[in-house]
Amino acid sequence: MWRMRKSIKRRWMIGIVFCLVQCGVLFLEYGTIRYATVRKYTALLEEKNAVMKQAERTVFLTRTCVKAGERFTEENTERKTLLSEQNPEGLETEVIGKVACADLPEGSIVTKALCCAQEVHATERECVLRNIRNTEYFTDGAIVELRIRYENGENYCVLKKERIGKKEEESESCCFYLTEEEQLLLSAAQYDVQAYDGTELYIVGFREARIQSEACNEYLPPAQILMQLRNRDEAYDKSLEQMREQRVALEERLAEYIKKKKSGLL
After folding, report:
1. Quick count: other Cβ atoms within 10 Å of Cβ 115?
2. With contact defined as beta carbons under 8 Å apart, do 186 and 132 qualify?
3. What is the Cα–Cα distance from 41 to 228, expressed in whole angstroms?
């Protein structure tokens, strides 16, 4: 009887030890699997977080439909951080005060190609110029003035604070975006260059274009150009007669200079 009880007790002990061993094996396998799983998914999570971090973009979104030529304001745009695969160099970092170059529906991302720094005039066109002095001293995008200098020394500003465009392969030419009125003034200045020997067009730059004022000695175009300007803009009516008188006086001074030069008095 005693031996039977001892045998049963031993079996219970063996069973308990066996269960404990099985539980230990199970816990060990669970821990191993859990560790491997956590390590695997932690690496995946870190990789995904890195990808998401690289895809974060701070952009400007349109709150409403913005029409071409309309100025961006705090009312029609907002700054947001979102995920995007767009090249960050092509995204505009500040749009307030700039204007849209195309119609933008609500929720559009504003890129550099879709806005410009200043309002684009309806008649503005790209004008390529050659035989303009000093163009080689200015870089693409510089703010300059186009001036005319007559042989008698008189000097006038034809175009004010224009952004010059230059191409490396065409060092002898430059371009400007000019309105209809500016194109007329340029045409008149080119006429004077051909009509009066020794007259030349050249450009000058600014030390700090943002704070320096525009030139006040404005170019006086011929009478036929003045009439065209008046036909386009009624604002010229008030100053047309005065400008015509000043132009006549300029032509008289140039004629007198040419006469003295031919006679050898200069």
Report:
1. 22
2. no
3. 75
